[in-house]
Fold:
Amino acid sequence: MSIKVAIAGIAGRMGRTLAEQVQRVDDLELIGGVERAGSPWLGQSIATGLSLSGATGSITQDLAALPAFDVLLDFTTTQSTLVHLETCLTRRAAMVIGTTGFMPNETMKIKQASKQITIVHAHNYSVGLTLLLDLVQQTSAKVGAEADVEILEWHHNQKVDAPSGTAYALLDAVKAGRQDAVGPSVHGREGLVGARPKGEIGLHAVRGGDIIGEHQVLFAMNGERIELTHRAASRANFAEGALRAARWGFASGAPGLFDMRDVLGLDRAASDGS
Ligand code: NAD
Structure:
């Protein structure tokens, strides 16, 4: 029996990638997609609109108008995800939320809804990055204050913010692993900065070309160093992780709010720093 999935934001960058990947696997069945009011794809079949041969289902504005589905994959906007949340509550369907940028009061609504349905909500669905964060925290805990830590990230020349959100998540992972008080983080270095103060954590953003995203955490000690690196080659990594989350959420069947650490079975106590 395949898991019936619907995709909100199906004509968007992530939506299309998700639809393509669902079509490639046998255990998931795409039953339809949702798009915003005014979208040129409304009313079209997924097969024609997204040039996905073999796909069934159509693209509609109203999630409630779609046939029954087990899991909604939602990579849209905060406002529309909250509207879709209501429909999933009514239908008792699970949700995999990829949308980012929720305000605290909106996150509370998601948390409230998770008392009744299964919700996976992750800021980053990349399996590799989730594992990198875990490895960084574990490594940080073991090497302790002996290591000088530097976080490096590379992105394309169109990225407007620096350092990346993921670089900050890696910084949090380094801090979570350390028992001792860690020093300030510094962004790049220039001029006569003097010897490196103990406990300082350096963050460095490199921008150029079409680099999708690369993150590295360096733990430099006397006589040796550890470099933990993740390289993204395409958006497919987010979609792969989201599909994994859909399968996990469907199989779990239990109401609750989960993230990629739960999906990958990682130790929750470790991520909480407890
Ligand atoms: P995008 O703009 O390419 O796609 C968003 C799609 O949602 C568009 O097709 C848009 O028409 C549609 N949409 C907007 N309002 C809608 C509504 N009311 N109903 C249905 N569809 C609606 O953006 P994207 O790059 O695909 O990213 C979408 C979201 O996912 C963003 O919040 C982004 O930050 C997030 N994202 C998260 C991850 C992750 O791993 N968690 C990865 C990539 C992107």
Notes: The chain has two domains: 3-121+235-271, 127-232.
